[in-house]
Protein backbone atom coordinates (compact mmCIF):
# COMPACT_ATOMS: atom_id res chain seq x y z
CA UNK A 1 0.00 0.00 0.00
CA UNK A 2 2.85 2.39 0.83
CA UNK A 3 4.45 1.69 -2.56
CA UNK A 4 1.15 2.35 -4.32
CA UNK A 5 0.84 5.68 -2.51
CA UNK A 6 4.38 6.67 -3.51
CA UNK A 7 3.67 5.83 -7.14
CA UNK A 8 0.49 7.90 -6.98
CA UNK A 9 2.47 10.87 -5.70
CA UNK A 10 4.95 10.52 -8.54
CA UNK A 11 2.10 10.42 -11.03
CA UNK A 12 0.76 13.64 -9.54
CA UNK A 13 4.24 15.12 -9.89
CA UNK A 14 4.51 14.14 -13.53
CA UNK A 15 1.05 15.48 -14.37
CA UNK A 16 1.19 18.71 -12.38
CA UNK A 17 1.20 21.90 -14.39
CA UNK A 18 -2.16 21.68 -16.16
CA UNK A 19 -3.45 24.64 -14.18
CA UNK A 20 -0.12 26.06 -13.04
CA UNK A 21 3.58 25.77 -13.86
CA UNK A 22 5.32 22.40 -13.73
CA UNK A 23 6.41 21.30 -10.25
CA UNK A 24 10.21 21.32 -10.00
CA UNK A 25 10.86 19.41 -6.81
CA UNK A 26 8.92 17.02 -4.62
CA UNK A 27 7.56 18.51 -1.41
CA UNK A 28 8.86 17.32 1.97
CA UNK A 29 5.63 15.35 2.43
CA UNK A 30 6.05 13.68 -0.95
CA UNK A 31 9.68 12.81 -0.22
CA UNK A 32 8.65 11.31 3.11
CA UNK A 33 6.00 9.21 1.34
CA UNK A 34 8.59 8.13 -1.23
CA UNK A 35 10.99 6.89 1.50
CA UNK A 36 8.67 5.50 4.18
CA UNK A 37 11.12 2.88 5.48
CA UNK A 38 13.48 5.57 6.76
CA UNK A 39 12.52 6.31 10.39
CA UNK A 40 15.30 8.74 11.32
CA UNK A 41 15.93 12.47 10.95
CA UNK A 42 15.18 14.32 7.73
CA UNK A 43 16.57 17.48 6.17
CA UNK A 44 14.30 20.49 5.72
CA UNK A 45 13.53 19.41 2.14
CA UNK A 46 12.27 16.03 3.37
CA UNK A 47 15.20 13.83 2.38
CA UNK A 48 16.46 11.15 4.80
CA UNK A 49 19.32 12.59 6.85
CA UNK A 50 21.63 9.63 7.41
CA UNK A 51 24.25 10.23 10.13
CA UNK A 52 27.62 11.75 9.23
CA UNK A 53 29.37 9.08 11.30
CA UNK A 54 27.95 6.29 9.12
CA UNK A 55 28.95 8.13 5.95
CA UNK A 56 32.49 8.44 7.27
CA UNK A 57 32.63 4.70 7.96
CA UNK A 58 31.05 3.96 4.58
CA UNK A 59 34.17 5.29 2.85
CA UNK A 60 36.18 2.35 4.24
CA UNK A 61 33.84 -0.30 2.79
CA UNK A 62 34.45 -2.00 -0.54
CA UNK A 63 31.97 -1.70 -3.39
CA UNK A 64 31.80 -5.51 -3.55
CA UNK A 65 30.78 -5.82 0.09
CA UNK A 66 28.06 -3.18 -0.19
CA UNK A 67 26.85 -4.67 -3.49
CA UNK A 68 26.57 -8.17 -2.03
CA UNK A 69 24.63 -7.02 1.03
CA UNK A 70 22.18 -5.04 -1.08
CA UNK A 71 21.69 -7.96 -3.47
CA UNK A 72 20.83 -10.19 -0.52
CA UNK A 73 18.13 -7.69 0.44
CA UNK A 74 16.67 -7.70 -3.08
CA UNK A 75 18.28 -4.48 -4.35
CA UNK A 76 19.85 -5.59 -7.62
CA UNK A 77 20.02 -2.25 -9.44
CA UNK A 78 22.14 0.08 -7.32
CA UNK A 79 25.58 0.06 -9.04
CA UNK A 80 26.97 1.84 -12.07
CA UNK A 81 30.54 1.53 -13.38
CA UNK A 82 32.65 2.82 -16.29
CA UNK A 83 33.27 6.42 -15.23
CA UNK A 84 35.75 9.16 -16.01
CA UNK A 85 37.21 10.21 -12.65
CA UNK A 86 38.56 13.64 -11.82
CA UNK A 87 40.67 12.18 -8.97
CA UNK A 88 41.00 8.40 -9.37
CA UNK A 89 42.38 7.81 -5.86
CA UNK A 90 39.75 9.83 -3.99
CA UNK A 91 36.76 8.21 -2.26
CA UNK A 92 33.46 10.03 -1.79
CA UNK A 93 30.45 9.23 0.38
CA UNK A 94 27.48 11.48 1.01
CA UNK A 95 23.74 12.11 0.85
CA UNK A 96 22.22 12.29 -2.61
CA UNK A 97 20.59 15.36 -4.12
CA UNK A 98 19.16 14.37 -7.51
CA UNK A 99 18.54 16.31 -10.70
CA UNK A 100 16.99 15.12 -13.93
CA UNK A 101 17.65 16.60 -17.37
CA UNK A 102 16.01 15.86 -20.71
CA UNK A 103 16.43 16.99 -24.33
CA UNK A 104 14.98 20.48 -24.73
CA UNK A 105 11.27 20.83 -25.49
CA UNK A 106 10.40 24.56 -25.53
CA UNK A 107 6.88 24.40 -24.08
CA UNK A 108 7.89 22.27 -21.09
CA UNK A 109 11.11 24.23 -20.61
CA UNK A 110 9.08 27.44 -20.36
CA UNK A 111 6.82 25.89 -17.73
CA UNK A 112 9.86 24.98 -15.66
CA UNK A 113 11.38 28.45 -16.01
CA UNK A 114 8.10 30.16 -15.10
CA UNK A 115 7.74 28.00 -12.03
CA UNK A 116 11.34 28.68 -11.02
CA UNK A 117 10.81 32.43 -11.41
CA UNK A 118 7.71 32.28 -9.20
CA UNK A 119 9.80 30.47 -6.56
CA UNK A 120 12.56 33.08 -6.70
CA UNK A 121 15.12 30.86 -8.41
CA UNK A 122 17.83 32.76 -10.27
CA UNK A 123 20.43 31.99 -12.91
CA UNK A 124 20.49 29.15 -15.42
CA UNK A 125 18.42 26.10 -14.58
CA UNK A 126 21.59 24.00 -14.31
CA UNK A 127 22.50 26.10 -11.25
CA UNK A 128 19.22 25.47 -9.42
CA UNK A 129 20.18 22.02 -8.03
CA UNK A 130 23.36 23.60 -6.62
CA UNK A 131 21.31 26.13 -4.66
CA UNK A 132 19.69 23.36 -2.57
CA UNK A 133 22.93 21.61 -1.60
CA UNK A 134 23.87 21.30 2.06
CA UNK A 135 27.05 20.15 3.75
CA UNK A 136 27.58 16.43 3.07
CA UNK A 137 25.38 16.32 -0.04
CA UNK A 138 26.49 14.82 -3.34
CA UNK A 139 24.98 16.31 -6.49
CA UNK A 140 23.84 13.38 -8.68
CA UNK A 141 22.41 14.20 -12.11
CA UNK A 142 20.90 12.17 -14.93
CA UNK A 143 21.74 14.08 -18.10
CA UNK A 144 21.07 11.00 -20.26
CA UNK A 145 24.73 10.47 -21.19
CA UNK A 146 25.01 13.62 -23.31
CA UNK A 147 28.64 14.66 -23.79
CA UNK A 148 28.87 17.33 -26.54
CA UNK A 149 26.76 20.36 -25.48
CA UNK A 150 25.82 18.40 -22.36
CA UNK A 151 28.31 19.90 -19.89
CA UNK A 152 26.37 20.55 -16.68
CA UNK A 153 29.13 22.48 -14.90
CA UNK A 154 32.50 24.15 -15.34
CA UNK A 155 34.86 25.49 -12.72
CA UNK A 156 32.59 28.36 -11.59
CA UNK A 157 29.70 26.06 -10.66
CA UNK A 158 32.21 23.50 -9.36
CA UNK A 159 33.46 26.06 -6.84
CA UNK A 160 29.90 26.75 -5.72
CA UNK A 161 29.15 23.03 -5.34
CA UNK A 162 32.19 22.45 -3.16
CA UNK A 163 31.55 25.58 -1.07
CA UNK A 164 28.05 24.33 -0.22
CA UNK A 165 28.57 20.58 0.10
CA UNK A 166 32.31 19.96 0.64
CA UNK A 167 31.77 17.06 -1.77
CA UNK A 168 31.69 16.55 -5.53
CA UNK A 169 29.39 15.37 -8.30
CA UNK A 170 28.21 12.23 -10.09
CA UNK A 171 26.88 13.04 -13.56
CA UNK A 172 25.52 10.62 -16.13
CA UNK A 173 26.75 13.18 -18.62
CA UNK A 174 29.66 15.57 -18.97
CA UNK A 175 31.53 18.57 -17.57
CA UNK A 176 33.73 21.30 -19.03
CA UNK A 177 36.77 23.20 -17.65
CA UNK A 178 38.35 19.99 -16.34
CA UNK A 179 41.61 21.77 -15.53
CA UNK A 180 39.75 24.41 -13.55
CA UNK A 181 37.80 21.73 -11.65
CA UNK A 182 41.07 20.00 -10.76
CA UNK A 183 42.24 23.21 -9.09
CA UNK A 184 39.35 23.09 -6.58
CA UNK A 185 41.01 21.48 -3.57
CA UNK A 186 38.82 18.63 -2.30
CA UNK A 187 36.34 18.68 -5.18
CA UNK A 188 35.96 15.45 -7.14
CA UNK A 189 33.75 14.09 -9.92
CA UNK A 190 32.50 10.89 -11.51
CA UNK A 191 31.28 11.73 -15.04
CA UNK A 192 30.75 10.01 -18.36
CA UNK A 193 32.85 12.43 -20.35
CA UNK A 194 34.47 15.83 -20.86
CA UNK A 195 33.87 18.39 -23.58
CA UNK A 196 34.81 22.07 -24.01
CA UNK A 197 31.30 22.97 -25.26
CA UNK A 198 28.59 24.80 -23.34
CA UNK A 199 25.30 23.23 -22.28
CA UNK A 200 22.74 23.49 -25.10
CA UNK A 201 19.40 21.95 -26.08
CA UNK A 202 18.85 20.50 -22.58
CA UNK A 203 16.33 21.29 -19.89
CA UNK A 204 16.07 20.62 -16.18
CA UNK A 205 12.91 18.64 -15.43
CA UNK A 206 13.22 17.91 -11.71
CA UNK A 207 15.22 18.37 -8.50
CA UNK A 208 15.10 15.73 -5.77
CA UNK A 209 13.03 13.32 -7.85
CA UNK A 210 13.76 9.64 -8.58
CA UNK A 211 16.31 9.30 -11.37
CA UNK A 212 18.16 6.63 -13.33
CA UNK A 213 21.96 6.58 -13.35
CA UNK A 214 22.90 3.96 -15.93
CA UNK A 215 21.66 0.70 -14.49
CA UNK A 216 20.94 2.15 -11.04
CA UNK A 217 17.72 3.62 -9.66
CA UNK A 218 18.45 6.53 -7.33
CA UNK A 219 16.21 8.30 -4.80
CA UNK A 220 16.83 11.63 -3.07
CA UNK A 221 18.47 11.02 0.30
CA UNK A 222 20.16 7.76 -0.71
CA UNK A 223 23.67 7.33 0.60
CA UNK A 224 26.24 7.04 -2.18
CA UNK A 225 29.68 5.44 -2.11
CA UNK A 226 31.92 6.39 -5.04
CA UNK A 227 35.28 4.72 -5.60
CA UNK A 228 37.68 3.95 -8.42
CA UNK A 229 35.61 0.98 -9.56
CA UNK A 230 32.26 2.75 -9.69
CA UNK A 231 29.41 4.12 -7.61
CA UNK A 232 26.78 2.39 -5.52
CA UNK A 233 23.59 3.96 -4.19
CA UNK A 234 22.36 2.68 -0.82
CA UNK A 235 18.78 3.25 0.37
CA UNK A 236 18.90 5.32 3.54
CA UNK A 237 17.06 2.73 5.63
CA UNK A 238 19.68 0.10 4.74
CA UNK A 239 22.82 2.18 5.33
CA UNK A 240 23.44 1.10 8.93
CA UNK A 241 22.95 -2.56 8.01
CA UNK A 242 25.29 -2.25 5.02
CA UNK A 243 28.01 -0.54 7.07
CA UNK A 244 27.87 -2.93 10.04
CA UNK A 245 27.60 -6.04 7.86
CA UNK A 246 30.52 -4.97 5.69
CA UNK A 247 32.63 -4.09 8.73
CA UNK A 248 31.87 -7.49 10.25
CA UNK A 249 32.81 -9.25 7.01
CA UNK A 250 36.07 -7.31 6.96
CA UNK A 251 36.82 -8.42 10.53
CA UNK A 252 36.11 -12.04 9.63
CA UNK A 253 38.43 -11.74 6.64
CA UNK A 254 41.15 -10.11 8.73
CA UNK A 255 40.94 -12.88 11.31
CA UNK A 256 40.88 -15.60 8.66
CA UNK A 257 43.88 -14.18 6.80
CA UNK A 258 45.86 -13.93 10.01
CA UNK A 259 45.11 -17.49 11.04
CA UNK A 260 45.97 -18.76 7.54
CA UNK A 261 49.34 -16.99 7.65
CA UNK A 262 49.94 -18.52 11.07
CA UNK A 263 49.06 -21.95 9.69
CA UNK A 264 46.50 -22.52 12.44
CA UNK A 265 43.71 -23.48 10.03
CA UNK A 266 43.55 -24.74 6.46
CA UNK A 267 41.91 -22.76 3.62
CA UNK A 268 39.14 -25.35 3.56
CA UNK A 269 38.35 -24.72 7.22
CA UNK A 270 38.25 -20.93 6.79
CA UNK A 271 36.29 -20.90 3.52
CA UNK A 272 33.47 -23.16 4.72
CA UNK A 273 31.03 -22.98 7.64
CA UNK A 274 33.15 -22.36 10.71
CA UNK A 275 33.31 -24.94 13.46
CA UNK A 276 32.55 -23.96 17.05
CA UNK A 277 36.30 -24.01 17.71
CA UNK A 278 36.95 -21.36 15.02
CA UNK A 279 33.97 -19.29 16.14
CA UNK A 280 35.23 -19.22 19.73
CA UNK A 281 38.73 -18.38 18.51
CA UNK A 282 37.28 -15.48 16.49
CA UNK A 283 35.36 -14.14 19.51
CA UNK A 284 38.52 -14.25 21.63
CA UNK A 285 40.43 -12.53 18.81
CA UNK A 286 37.85 -9.73 18.77
CA UNK A 287 38.56 -9.09 22.45
CA UNK A 288 42.19 -8.34 21.57
CA UNK A 289 41.36 -5.70 18.95
CA UNK A 290 40.29 -2.92 21.29
CA UNK A 291 40.15 0.46 19.51
CA UNK A 292 41.07 -1.21 16.21
CA UNK A 293 37.44 -2.22 15.77
CA UNK A 294 35.66 -0.10 13.14
CA UNK A 295 32.46 -0.07 15.23
CA UNK A 296 31.76 0.23 18.95
CA UNK A 297 31.76 -3.00 20.93
CA UNK A 298 28.11 -2.32 21.79
CA UNK A 299 27.24 -2.15 18.09
CA UNK A 300 29.22 -5.31 17.40
CA UNK A 301 27.57 -7.29 20.22
CA UNK A 302 24.11 -6.18 19.12
CA UNK A 303 24.88 -7.07 15.50
CA UNK A 304 26.23 -10.52 16.38
CA UNK A 305 23.09 -11.44 18.32
CA UNK A 306 21.16 -11.43 15.06
CA UNK A 307 23.97 -12.76 12.89
CA UNK A 308 23.97 -16.28 11.54
CA UNK A 309 27.49 -17.55 10.90
From TrEMBL:
Keywords: Magnesium, Metal-binding, Signal
Any GO MF annotation of the entry: metal ion binding
A Pfam match: RraA-like
Cleavable signal peptide: 1-21
Record carries keyword Nucleus: no
Residues annotated to bind substrate: 154-157, 176
Keyword Lipid biosynthesis: no
SUPFAM superfamilies xref list: RraA-like
Protein's recorded name: Regulator of RNase E activity RraA
Amino acid sequence: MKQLFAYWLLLCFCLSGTAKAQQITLTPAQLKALTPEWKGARSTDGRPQVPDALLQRLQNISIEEAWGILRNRGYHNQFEGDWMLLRPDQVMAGRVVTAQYMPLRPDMDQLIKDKGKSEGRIGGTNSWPIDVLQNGDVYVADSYGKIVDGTLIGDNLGNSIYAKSKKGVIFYGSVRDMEGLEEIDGFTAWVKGYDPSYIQQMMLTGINVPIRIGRATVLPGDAVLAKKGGVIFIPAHLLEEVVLSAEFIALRDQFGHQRLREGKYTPGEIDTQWTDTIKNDFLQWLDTQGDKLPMSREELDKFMKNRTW
